[in-house]
């Protein structure tokens, strides 16, 4: 970049400190380290074996480790208070003087040996160098000349030349200076100043620094996945990726814990960062392995990895790998935000490039495709959740057997072990290119017509979820992972509350209902009154079982990032150089008071700054929510679902009948929240009563005079009747319902033409599809998506 | 007639008298639909002098003949200098104007000489100044029950509007109070039907009926956590006018884990009031005060009235009618 460097490949070692003898180099006691890059004592004493917190059965260590173990220094506490969620940190706790080694017993929350450097919050402080084990022998600052025109690699790195690194192919970095550690060549033979290949990140660099923080972060992610046993091995899982911090972090986690394959010729799934121009740090391991940590101020970085064997303790055994088959979906929402065609093309190109680097099958879809969705998206193909832990174990066994067979088969064939999970890493990139202009215009018209930003956000969310659902069904994914963090969920919870989605808060925010099956122990600290309350776990599980997958039927949404706060995510992304993309959204640059979403976000974050436990409190509250609304019918006879959000209707049918029955209520009253249950039932009453003493005010709506009948009204009226309370309020801000995507209107018409038949159809579906699902599971086969994809059209036919 | 306002829920344009009639009809409908006040009941109206209780008393006085109930005003003197005196004067004026019997119960008489000022002085140094409203709410609930017993009432009626209920929901969520949330949703549960009038409507009704009420904030109110929720609610309402109703709807439909539901209430072993623990909250708080260790026990209040107990005088929540715990 702009940094002037020597034209010749030989680098200058600008600031190499004096060679430091590792056995005697320990700073004077009490010496304050001014910067983290400064030399620190090198441990040569016999270190205890690296502890492995991710050992099976140690899930409780997440909660144990997050409890305040080590008392923080005042400075650290101040830093913890000052750090607010959502900020991106250039340097962790830059102002606070680093705690002195060995002073006052402050220790990393995980390894409990090193002084903490990174403070997530009071009690969650992490050291820099991780648990005892292999240590970097040098930290080198380097900068890169990135691109195809860079000088060739001077080192025989041994890795295949066709290893893709971005679009520019292999790029090189130049070692610029040695910050601390040994001089070039002394400790790490083979590493010398010069030009090095710049490779995408691997686990080496990621684990080099901040091992404790990263280990705990990764553990949380995997613990959430493992604890709930929701995702079966070999299951196809769709990762919903928006480019933002949380979802990028989620995708990164999945990429990272995929089976790492070493050796030339095997393409490992990689998440290559955007090559950075600027300074980075390289870590030199004693064995000569390098990793790059951190990047330039604006971009991510890659990993310098000339020697492909990772140090001891970093390889992962197979038991810890994630066994599902991931795919990534990205939804381009440019039309809803009114972006220009050029901007969108640019964004799409960048996103597709990033998607390509993940090595997973990916699907980049434009929001315009909702206009082509079939009405079947809105049908809930109810599938019985596969039984309890027995089914899970059976699936695991089947999977392992299959894997073993495949491995044997591959060895017999003489080739390298074939990747069992990935069908084709670059398989079927579904890039549709730019959507037709007419569709874009139609979508723009719809979003422009929406009166409030709140409704626009809700509408966008609805359409997006339908689109993702469709993609999942079309490609046979049975789970969708969204990357909502703990912070985001707390905000979403409060927003949902303010939007009238009280009955669906659990659907919107909770991980998965099976979590509740374990009953009371999952509810955090027990109730102060001791007893388990009226609902025993057995009763509860029986009641929950039917509700578990009801919302979208065959596709279940899971939220594996729900234990991570946004601050942790930001740190993780920074430390691991996870590339994060910023794309303008609907609410970008909107003032705080523009929408309920923005307002609630600002409020929660502000309150969090004052009361640091706000977010976790709200989040814990969400865990106490049930998915079943209080007075909705039994699982065997599901209530009619909302057309848009697919939740059971929370509108009193009595109120509806009253409104529909036509007591001279004006049509305007129909579209008001009259429909709402007890809170607003008397609102209709008031409308009714008010006409007795006074003459009915003549208005634009006054002429209608008759209660809205579906046949006579515009498609809007019959659509309104099929929505839940919150969606009705939202749709009130959409003046012309005709602009909605055709699949919604068609489905609304279908449902209204068969009043009362919805329940029957659902009942029929329940039997039919559940038997199919049962066949899929009990046959010992994995519930792959093909079967569900096959089931969905069948469902459709019943419906039509 | 000139149109005076647009009805919040139905969107109809109404004029003043018509609005008042609709408002009264709503309350009547709520009371009748929920069978809250049986004929012949003696109803104690909790009167603080503020707009909600003033409007409530006025409406109930209008509705007393059709409902066939007799009304008694019960006011609580918390002993807050410079605030409660003026409010009580307003209550006395109202009682004289409506010719309703008024009973004033004072904290000082009921709770062994503790007034709110004394409590505030006692808690001020301990860094617990925010707990003032906690004490006040619990004790006032207790005092109201005592007052109802004094006048021989069978029902207690308090004035709470929808805004207050929405605030409470927000607050309980922010505090993670699942037990109260479970009960907060229960405001619409059988036996406790709530008539939801938004704050705006209450004020408008008071305006149209030319009611004389006292509108000042309690001197201790600014310290309360409720302030955050109230600010948020005002902002929400500015963004979307139906936000209050939406929140109330959410609260009614909230589905909580059975383990988070509060246990059935029992009786306090000392005073016999409703309590979910051996000792009711008021007794526990008083114990703490008397031991010079004011320590609000973070537990369920007796009967759940604290849920809807607002900061004194500073507006309040839906009209909650509940049986007196006698």
Automatic annotation (TrEMBL), chain A:
<dbReference type="GO" id="GO:0016783">
    <property type="term" value="F:sulfurtransferase activity"/>
</dbReference>
<protein>
    <recommendedName>
        <fullName>Cytoplasmic tRNA 2-thiolation protein 2</fullName>
    </recommendedName>
</protein>
<dbReference type="GO" id="GO:0002143">
    <property type="term" value="P:tRNA wobble position uridine thiolation"/>
</dbReference>
<dbReference type="GO" id="GO:0005829">
    <property type="term" value="C:cytosol"/>
</dbReference>
<comment type="subunit">
    <text>Component of a complex at least composed of URM1, CTU2/NCS2 and CTU1/ATPBD3.</text>
</comment>
<dbReference type="Pfam" id="PF10288">
    <property type="entry name" value="CTU2"/>
</dbReference>
<keyword id="KW-0819">tRNA processing</keyword>
<dbReference type="GO" id="GO:0016779">
    <property type="term" value="F:nucleotidyltransferase activity"/>
</dbReference>
<comment type="similarity">
    <text>Belongs to the CTU2/NCS2 family.</text>
</comment>
<comment type="function">
    <text>Plays a central role in 2-thiolation of mcm(5)S(2)U at tRNA wobble positions of tRNA(Lys), tRNA(Glu) and tRNA(Gln). May act by forming a heterodimer with CTU1/ATPBD3 that ligates sulfur from thiocarboxylated URM1 onto the uridine of tRNAs at wobble position.</text>
</comment>
<feature type="compositionally biased region" description="Low complexity">
    <location>
        <begin position="409"/>
        <end position="435"/>
    </location>
</feature>
<feature type="region of interest" description="Disordered">
    <location>
        <begin position="759"/>
        <end position="793"/>
    </location>
</feature>
<feature type="region of interest" description="Disordered">
    <location>
        <begin position="406"/>
        <end position="435"/>
    </location>
</feature>
<dbReference type="InterPro" id="IPR019407">
    <property type="entry name" value="CTU2"/>
</dbReference>
<dbReference type="InterPro" id="IPR014729">
    <property type="entry name" value="Rossmann-like_a/b/a_fold"/>
</dbReference>
<feature type="compositionally biased region" description="Low complexity">
    <location>
        <begin position="1"/>
        <end position="20"/>
    </location>
</feature>
<feature type="region of interest" description="Disordered">
    <location>
        <begin position="1"/>
        <end position="57"/>
    </location>
</feature>
<dbReference type="GO" id="GO:0032447">
    <property type="term" value="P:protein urmylation"/>
</dbReference>
<dbReference type="GO" id="GO:0000049">
    <property type="term" value="F:tRNA binding"/>
</dbReference>
<comment type="pathway">
    <text>tRNA modification; 5-methoxycarbonylmethyl-2-thiouridine-tRNA biosynthesis.</text>
</comment>
<keyword id="KW-0963">Cytoplasm</keyword>
TrEMBL record, chain B:
<dbReference type="GO" id="GO:0005739">
    <property type="term" value="C:mitochondrion"/>
</dbReference>
<dbReference type="GO" id="GO:0005524">
    <property type="term" value="F:ATP binding"/>
</dbReference>
<keyword id="KW-0547">Nucleotide-binding</keyword>
<dbReference type="GO" id="GO:0016740">
    <property type="term" value="F:transferase activity"/>
</dbReference>
<dbReference type="Pfam" id="PF16503">
    <property type="entry name" value="zn-ribbon_14"/>
</dbReference>
<dbReference type="GO" id="GO:0000049">
    <property type="term" value="F:tRNA binding"/>
</dbReference>
<keyword id="KW-0819">tRNA processing</keyword>
<feature type="domain" description="tRNA(Ile)-lysidine/2-thiocytidine synthase N-terminal">
    <location>
        <begin position="43"/>
        <end position="180"/>
    </location>
</feature>
<keyword id="KW-0732">Signal</keyword>
<keyword id="KW-0067">ATP-binding</keyword>
<dbReference type="InterPro" id="IPR035107">
    <property type="entry name" value="tRNA_thiolation_TtcA_Ctu1"/>
</dbReference>
<keyword id="KW-0820">tRNA-binding</keyword>
<feature type="binding site">
    <location>
        <position position="76"/>
    </location>
    <ligand>
        <name>ATP</name>
    </ligand>
</feature>
<feature type="binding site">
    <location>
        <begin position="46"/>
        <end position="48"/>
    </location>
    <ligand>
        <name>ATP</name>
    </ligand>
</feature>
<feature type="signal peptide">
    <location>
        <begin position="1"/>
        <end position="33"/>
    </location>
</feature>
<dbReference type="GO" id="GO:0002144">
    <property type="term" value="C:cytosolic tRNA wobble base thiouridylase complex"/>
</dbReference>
<keyword id="KW-0963">Cytoplasm</keyword>
<feature type="binding site">
    <location>
        <position position="159"/>
    </location>
    <ligand>
        <name>ATP</name>
    </ligand>
</feature>
<dbReference type="InterPro" id="IPR032442">
    <property type="entry name" value="CTU1_C"/>
</dbReference>
<keyword id="KW-0808">Transferase</keyword>
<feature type="binding site">
    <location>
        <position position="164"/>
    </location>
    <ligand>
        <name>ATP</name>
    </ligand>
</feature>
<comment type="function">
    <text>Plays a central role in 2-thiolation of mcm(5)S(2)U at tRNA wobble positions of tRNA(Lys), tRNA(Glu) and tRNA(Gln). Directly binds tRNAs and probably acts by catalyzing adenylation of tRNAs, an intermediate required for 2-thiolation. It is unclear whether it acts as a sulfurtransferase that transfers sulfur from thiocarboxylated URM1 onto the uridine of tRNAs at wobble position.</text>
</comment>
